[in-house]
Design a protein that fits this description.
The complex is a heterodimer of chains A (about 210) and B (about 290).
Chain A: H1 8-19, H2 23-45, H3 48-65, H4 76-98, H5 108-115, H6 124-143, H7 146-157, H8 162-169, H9 173-193
Helix pairs in contact in A: 1-2, 2-3, 2-4, 3-4, 4-8, 5-6, 6-9, 7-9, 8-9
Chain B: H1 2-12, H2 14-18, H3 24-36, H4 38-55, H5 86-113, H6 121-136, H7 141-153, H8 155-164, H9 171-183, H10 185-192, H11 198-201, H12 209-224, H13 240-292
Classes of the chains: A mainly alpha (about 210), B mainly alpha (about 290).
């Protein structure tokens, strides 16, 4: 069952019914947001299993807390839901730090595999290079401080605007800007050191957003 | 240094420039600089490439549906807590028991050794208190007889005792004599009756006015001397019976108490150490469990 993403009126209704305990209504919301939320958790935590757990926990927490959602803010429900997901991810990252035996870096194999998608267009060599680049990018993301990682993922991977990012992260616009700046600069340095920014490999995008 | 500052300032603006978040004036300034600066232009291209790589990251498909089921919403259903192992429960019970026993021993120890002079050890105190209670209330022949025997032995000093008791001035004296007097409450009546041999044969030791007077005086004395009766030796020159009694009790207490004290101390040390060990083990185990838990 696909729900059109621009059905905001539906969403208000769904939220209201969820608040009254209508689990089926909330599961429509789940279906709508699980893709982006799962991907966010995947980029933040670097592992498929961790991302699954975090996504599920986030939706459970969201259902329990939906009575506290107050609409009308910039970003609205998505920002509110993602904020819950971010907190779940932060909790997991804190737990990992408490157990240093678990490597903070995503295992390269698992990280790359998680992001592989069937590619029908380019030649196999390009596919391989693209896959390698994706793996290196995830490595670079994992090495960022978690706040910078979150900012740049929300901005460049999820395509959120600065205001909504500020909502999700619970920080000011200025903080959002500076975290994005620093994250991009560090990631740039990382990719460069891994030889991934050779102009022959990259085709500059036609325009900036 | 100025060169570095200028380029550093412009490079900070490259990221918002990519996001079209600069003001028109800032944009114009930056564009002008980039036109003549290869270094900053190269940095802009590298940043753009980074952002493109991020934007081109493919979205992973969800591996499964995350729809909620009622079971997921049970308290703690998503992540069942590991059941506490039996050893932990056992240790907690043991810690509790040891703590209680240690507390009892400590209380008994503190109240016994520092208590009234001739009441060494809680047992004596308890006996005296019980006897006092009984003296105030109904008195049976046996209770009256036992202290009555004591008093009868020192019959000639019974009067002295009676005389000494009502004088609360001598705090130690009175306090020392009070319990014994109360214990011999029934006997005091008999002693007050000039130590008549009829004492032993008069089981009904109903409190006489003298006895009541003794009791009242004793209560006053006890109240006045509260806390003061810590010295082991009651200085009662005019009541040899009491002195003897006190010394007797004290001697007995010393011999018993000496052994008691060291035993009590040893028990306290052992209990304290084992309690500390149990608590320490519990803390360590909970820390380990927390580290292992997801």
């Amino acid at each position: 069952m696909t729900i059109p993403l621009d059905a905001d009126v539906d969403e208000v209704e769904l939220i209201a019914r969820s608040t009254e305990g209508d689990l089926a209504a909330f599961n429509v919301i789940v279906e709508r947001y699980q893709g982006p939320l799962y991907n966010l958790c995947l980029r933040m935590l670097g592992s498929q299993q961790a991302a699954e757990d975090a996504t599920q926990d986030a939706f459970i927490a969201g259902y329990r807390a939906i009575g506290r959602f107050r609409g009308g803010r910039s970003g609205g429900f998505r920002a509110w839901l993602f904020r819950i997901g971010v907190n779940v991810c932060y909790d997991e990252l804190r737990r990992r730090r408490a157990r240093p035996a678990v490597s903070l870096d995503a295992p390269r194999g698992e990280g790359s595999r998680a992001f592989d998608v069937p590619n029908t267009g380019p030649a196999p060599e390009e596919q391989a290079q693209a896959a390698e680049l994706r793996g290196v990018i995830q490595q670079g993301l994992t090495e960022l401080p978690s706040e910078q990682r979150l900012a740049v993922v929300l901005c460049d991977v999820q395509g959120m605007d600065y205001a909504e990012i500020a909502e999700v992260m619970g920080v000011s616009l200025g903080t959002v800007k500076s975290r994005i700046n620093r994250a991009r600069a560090r990631l740039r340095a990382y990719l460069q050191s891994r030889g991934e920014l050779l102009s022959t490999r990259f085709r500059p995008t036609s325009g900036d957003r | 240094m100025l060169w570095l500052d200028k380029h550093a300032r412009f490079r900070k603006k490259l990221s918002p420039f990519i996001d079209r978040r600069l003001t028109p004036a800032e944009t114009e300034q930056l564009a002008g600089h980039l036109a003549s600066c290869d270094g900053c232009r190269a940095e802009l291209e590298r940043l753009r490439a980074t952002v493109s790589a991020l934007r081109d990251l493919p979205s992973a498909n969800v591996p499964r549906s995350f729809a909620l089921t009622p079971q997921m919403l049970q308290p703690r259903a998503a992540r069942p807590e590991p059941s506490r192992p039996l050893t932990t429960t056992g240790m907690r019970l043991a810690s509790g028991a040891v703590a209680i026993v240690l507390a009892v021993v400590l209380i008994g120890d503190l109240s016994g050794v520092g208590g009234n002079g001739d009441q060494v050890g809680g047992g004596d105190q308890e006996q005296a208190a019980t006897a006092e209670f009984r003296a105030e209330g109904d008195e049976t022949a046996e209770e009256a007889l036992a202290p009555a025997d004591m008093a009868a032995d020192e019959g000639e000093t019974g009067g002295a005792e009676r005389d000494a008791a009502p004088s609360p001035a001598t705090g130690q004296n009175a306090t020392a004599s009070c319990p014994t007097a109360n214990a011999a409450g029934g006997a005091a009546a008999g002693a007050g009756a000039a130590g008549t041999p009829g004492l032993a044969t008069s089981p009904s030791a109903t409190p006489t006015p003298v006895d009541a007077e003794v009791l009242r005086a004793c209560e006053e004395a006890a109240a006045a001397a509260a806390g003061a009766a810590e010295t082991a030796t009651p200085a009662v020159e005019d009541s040899p019976w009491i002195v003897d009694e006190g010394e007797q009790a004290e001697a007995a207490a010393a011999s018993d108490g000496g052994a008691d004290i060291s035993t009590v101390r040893a028990a306290e040390i052992v209990l304290g150490v084992s309690l500390a060990a149990l608590l320490g083990a519990l803390v360590v185990e909970s820390l380990l469990r927390r580290r292992r838990a997801v």
